[in-house]
Design goal:
The chain is α/β, with parallel strands linked by helices and 320 residues long. The protein is 43% helix and 17% strand. The chain has helices spanning 12-22, 42-45, 58-67, 81-86, 88-109, 142-161, 187-197, 216-228, 249-259, 271-278, 287-293, 301-315, and strands spanning 2-7, 27-34, 50-52, 72-75, 112-114, 117-118, 129-131, 165-166, 168-170, 172-174, 201-203, 211-215, 240-241, 245-247, 265-267, 283-284. Helix 3 (58-67) crosses helix 5 (88-109), helix 5 (88-109) runs parallel beside helix 6 and helix 7 packs across helix 12 (301-315).
């Protein structure tokens, strides 16, 4: 069984990934690595080992790997797209220098490494419809630049040192477990909070702006199943296109109105977030992930809307 260290366990992906791995009998010890700046929820603190791990401290990463006999590292530390544009040096430091720390520990101690990439690797020159697996990657944001660099570094460590690196290019991720955290696609989460509260949603993304999306449970499945995949089947490694659905704000609002007819939305386009969104694909081709390790999303737009509204209504508007 694999012993796993999840760096960035308190983040949007990390909280759900740790819980999923701890419930999966194909895995052994699951260490939730977090910083003092971002505390873990009680559910993770009580369900398994937790350690303070800063992605910029290679020595500490190595200590935890040795203590728990870790053989697989999920490196989830990153600043999200819109936040990264306001803190470019911090985004580079965490996204690139932190990755190098992780890869060096993996090289020295024999670990596999999963580092999520993003649709942010693409830019205006990339084909927007059915964006190929292998295509032009010329991003216009520091977030995208760090992700392209991460893909190349991960491939380098695989070919140069034999480190088992693997990655997926995540689309926008939708979850009711953690609040939005500074991503360009976060409108697709924020809108549900407004709908449940009975508020008019001010959408920062313009009508007609299509982007790839996936529900968090599918994103977690991708992270788990790729690391369990037969390496002999992997023609690609860093990084696989994955997607589950593509929609624009109008389509999402229309689905919400099928359940909540009084829901209203207006547009208050954010120039930064819109410029980022406009540079990303409308819809990716994820056929390589399907063929090489069996990627198969389960949640589509209609199912996602049902799940999000139901979960947030159970929490109650006062808790949101």
């Amino acid at each position: 069984m694999k012993n796993v260290l999840v760096i960035g366990a308190a983040g949007q992906i990390g909280t759900e990934l740790v819980a999923t791995l701890r419930a999966d009998d194909r895995f052994g010890t699951i260490v939730a690595g977090h910083t003092t700046r971002t505390p873990l929820p009680d559910s993770l603190l009580q369900s398994g080992p937790c350690e303070c791990v800063d992605i910029l401290d290679a020595r500490r990463i190595a200590e935890v790997v040795k203590t728990y006999n870790v053989d697989t590292i999920y490196n989830l530390a990153a600043l999200l797209s819109a936040t990264a544009e306001s803190k470019p040096l911090a985004a580079w430091n965490v996204g690139v220098n932190g990755l190098i720390n992780t890869l060096e520990v993996a090289r020295e101690l024999g670990c596999a490494v999963f580092t999520p990439s993003s649709i942010g690797v693409f830019g205006p020159e990339t084909p927007a419809v059915m964006t190929p697996q292998d295509t032009v990657c010329r991003p216009k944001t520091v977030y995208g630049i760090t992700k392209v660099t991460g893909e190349l570094l991960s491939d380098y460590y695989f070919h140069k040192y034999g480190v088992d690196t693997r990655s997926v290019r995540y689309p926008g991720l939708i979850s009711h477990e953690t609040p939005p955290g500074g991503g360009t696609t976060d409108y697709a989460v924020e809108i549900f909070y407004s709908a449940v509260k009975g508020e008019t949603y001010a959408c920062p993304i313009a009508a007609g702006t299509f982007m790839d999306m996936a529900f968090m449970s599918d994103a977690i499945d991708a992270a788990v199943n790729l690391m369990l995949a037969d390496p002999q089947r992997l023609k690609h490694r860093n990084s696989f296109n994955v997607t589950a659905m593509s929609f624009d704000p109008e389509m999402l609002a229309a689905e919400i109105r099928k359940r909540k007819p009084d829901f209203s939305m207006r547009y208050a386009v954010d120039p930064l977030r819109q410029s980022i969104a406009s540079s990303w694909p409308d819809a990716m081709d994820d056929s390589c992930a399907r063929e090489e390790w069996g990627w198969q999303p389960k949640i589509g737009l209609s199912e996602m809307v049902d799940i999000m509204l139901s979960a947030l209504e159970k929490k109650g508007a006062g808790a949101l």
